[in-house]
What we know:
Layout lengths: L53 E10 L4 E11 L11 E2 L2 E5 L2 E5 L3 E3 L5 E6 L8 E10 L2 E11 L4 H5 L5 E14 L2 E14 L5 E10 L5 E11 L2 E10 L2 E11 L5 E12 L2 E15 L1
Antiparallel strand pairs: 1-2, 1-9, 2-4, 3-7, 4-5, 6-7, 7-8, 8-9, 10-11, 10-17, 11-12, 12-13, 13-14, 14-15, 15-16, 16-17
Amino acid sequence: xxxxxxxxxxxxxxxxxxxxxxxxxxxxxxxxxxxxxxxxxxxxxxxxxxxxxxxxxxxxxxxxxxxxxxxxxxxxxxxxxxxxxxxxxxxxxxxxxxxxxxxxxxxxxxxxxxxxxxxxxxxxxxxxxxxxxxxxxxxxxxxxxxxxxxxxxxxxxxxxxxxxxxxxxxxxxxxxxxxxxxxxxxxxxxxxxxxxxxxxxxxxxxxxxxxxxxxxxxxxxxxxxxxxxxxxxxxxxxxxxxxxxxxxxxxxxxxxxxxxxxxxxxxxxxxxxxxxxxxxxxxxxxxx
Length: 288
């Protein structure tokens, strides 16, 4: 088996087969269940509560030598006992769907019908109380050829967001991404700030900056993105030491937007190399 990467990882990639999970509670009341298959955020929840639930998640991914993209409904199920709180990366057990094929994951690893290795990893140190980050990597001959980043958890009820008609929330934290830089695996990580402005139609904007595999610190702006329900999606643009940019897709998590998390994809130029990558962010403890 290929060696697990020392993470803060999150990634995935590729043209994975997508199936949207129907949302309904045991009582049959769909209002208490989000489209990701989980209840909306409420006090007392733990990420371990997602065990056994088939989730439909937004994923950002890239294919080495190809392209990067965000897809809206990647299906995944995590077995009970896999999500263990702690500081280190955790190899999960469960199921993921790739190319229309359900892959059984045991202790972090599985194999597709054509012999490609699949790894599923969770990093609790880069997750929050209500939102967590996952990474799926697909290997051929011990080299990553596809990778995707996903965020799962208990989203804020859209009605709670709609009730916020004034004020702002500022979230600070870190992002982490990996990708292909001129044919080599490259990590891009650093600091991130998001500002959610709930006045008017509601927008999210911000910036992030970090080191990309030996390059000086590069900075990207997050263009103002409309809040729709409990989500936002938009574009990012290089401000310093790179050209191009990428996309962002995020969601508010917790009973009252205590956290914000989502996925990033990149298609940018740093020096003379192209960077195609994907990553996640989970930001907590907003400042009004």
